[in-house]
Amino acid sequence: MSVKFNTNAVTKDNCLYTKFAYESAIVEKKPDGVLSVTPTTTDYEFKVDLSTPKTGLMLVGLGGNNGTTLMAAILANKNKISFENKEGLVEPNYYGSVTQSSTIKLGVDAEGNDVYAPFNSILPMVSPNDLVVGGWDISKLPLDKAMKRAKVLDVDLQRQLVEHLEKVQPLPSVYYPDFIAMNQKERADNVFNVDSNGEVTTKNKWADVERIRSDINKFKKDNNLDKVIVLWSANTERYSQIIPGVNDTAENLIQSIKDSHDEVSPSTVFAVACILEQVPYINGSPQNTFVPGAIELSEIHKSFIGGDDFKSGQTKIKSVLAQFLVDAGIKPLSIASYNHLGNNDGYNLSAPQQFRSKEISKQSVVDDMIESNEILYNEKSGSEVDHCIVIKYLPAVGDSKVAMDEYYSELMLGGHNKISIHNVCEDSLLATPLIIDLVIMAEFLQRVTYKKVGEETYENFYSVLTLLSYWLKAPLSKPGFKPINGLNKQRLAIENLLRLLVGMPINNELRFEERLV
User: Fold this and answer.
1) What angle do CA 131, 137, 142 make, to 5 degrees?
2) Distance between CA atoms of 170 and 167, rounded to whole angstroms?
3) Buried b / exposed e across 444-466, counting CB within 10 Å, b at 16+?
4) What order of strands is seen across the sheet that includes strand 448-452?
5) Which numeric CATH code is attached to 314-427?
6) Rounded to two decimals, what is the model's pTM?
7) For 45-102, how does the pLDDT look when each residue is reduced to its tens digit (9 = 90+)?
8) What is the 3-state secondary structure (H, E, C) of 209-224?
9) How far apart are CA 237 and CA 179, in angstroms?
10) pLDDT tens digits for 123-169?
């Protein structure tokens, strides 16, 4: 479907130019408790490059469940590979992807009916079928065997994909044993940070940064790419300690890598390599890859970063349901979340330090909702939600992650409400569309620049891509700002950005067409 916009947007030299008046409100709390609200308006001009570049995606963890599922999805869709399962013939699709399988409301027709268009028809976006995929893995299995090991896809689809995947082998990766569970050691047979005796060494981390930079540039050159995006989909690491003088500033972080400090993780090494190459880097696991020094480094090099942790099943539901309860004036008192899964992610998370990283990313999802309502949450009535998270490794269930949640809330006059949810999801088939969306949107946002009306120079967005928060469990935010966790707010921000870029008003549901005389 194509859409023609009759707006004030102007196309010139294959770029789209739009002026937009950004309206907001500055709120000040007076000493007497009265809130003073001052509406403000700032005029911006946006510029969008309408050319879609040849884009490469390099996955850290290419041979894992998500990596092999992503490769399978792209190959099946690109080559129109249908397959049989117990329910019949399955045609390839990208269900679960916002950019490929959702719509945006454009407006209303002459009769007042809502009109929708595909998300990716509003502005030119890279097609996942055109992505050139490669990457690293600590396991050397070629992807056909890695796909079989993952046990995610139906056998008939696997059989048809073997010829496409058997020659694809991950690049050697970085392996620092202290950061992932010891139960992953047997998989680590494809590692480049080794000494002259072939033993793993963590004594030259700057050389690891340079090796990754070289891998990125070679991948870009070999495939004649315009852009490369790197995404971490490898094992969850333990949290890195934030230590003054080590990883608190960009300068200290670089020096700590050169000194091979113990608290520099593999994911941070990848992040630094990408930042120095001005390649967008997205962290799809819950560890604190983006230590303060990494964020500052991204600011200095004007390189995009995004994180942390894919928001696929339980947490996505939580970000909707908790917001619904608080917005309805109902007070959640406790949220108990239990998970069990049997894939390698669950195996790695069975180690306490790696589980702690996941627990932190899951717990933060309701923080901003609590802070939004001081009627429900205050010093007198209680300002916190008891939030318990349990993850257990059960090999028998494989990639089908089981999540059970209980929301216990307070109603008026001492009443209570309990909502229990039992959710079974195929983990990698939920996470893979998120990878697609994160990559496509990160690339798209590189093509958007802006300036205040009257200024000369167009600027890129701030380095931390908070517009990716919809797909991320513990969204990274600009230092000094709090993350937005509510799923509907996150989606609305993306939708309104696309609307303003083509000269449409931001979306609202006043529906004056039917509500005014």
Assistant:
1) 75
2) 10
3) bbbbbbbeeeeeeeeeebebbbb
4) 10-12, 15-29, 35-49, 448-452, 459-460
5) 3.30.360.10
6) 0.93
7) 999 999 999 999 999 999 999 999 999 999 999 999 999 999 999 999 999 999 999 9
8) HHHHHHHHHHHHHHCC
9) 5
10) 999 999 999 999 999 999 999 999 999 999 999 999 999 999 999 99
Alpha-carbon distance 256 to 238, whole Å? 18
SS3 486: coil
- For the chain, domain boundaries: 314-427
Contact 141/67 with Cβ under 8 angstroms? no
Which residues are annotated as catalytic?
309, 358, 401, 473
> With contact defined as beta carbons under 8 Å apart, do 129 and 73 qualify?
no
**Cα distances (Å, whole numbers) of residue 393 to 238, 338, 355, 357, 397:** 17, 11, 11, 16, 9
Counting beta carbons within 10 angstroms of the beta carbon of residue 13, is it exposed (0 to 12), middle (13 to 18) or buried (19 or more)? exposed
The answer to whether the beta carbons of residues 185 and 347 sit under 8 Å apart is: no
CA distance 194 to 22: 53
Q: pLDDT for 294-305, tens place per residue?
A: 999 999 999 999
Q: Assign 3-class secondary structure to 269-308.
A: HHHHHHHHCCCCEEECCCCCCCCHHHHHHHHHHCCCEEEC
The burial class, CB within 10 Å (0-12 / 13-18 / 19+), for 422 is exposed
CA distances from 304 to 14, 366, 439, 445, 476 (A): 23, 26, 12, 9, 12
Q: Which residues of 308-330 are buried (b: 16+ CB within 10 A; e: fewer)?
A: bbbbbbbbbbbbebbbebbeeeb
Are 344 and 418 in contact by the 8 Å Cβ rule? The answer is no
Strand order in the sheet with 331-341: 386-393, 331-341, 400-410, 416-426
CA 319 – CA 370 distance, rounded (Å): 12
78 near 129, Cβ under 8 Å? yes
432 neighbors 69 (Cβ within 8 angstroms): yes
Give the integer Cα–Cα distance in Å for 406 and 334. Answer: 8
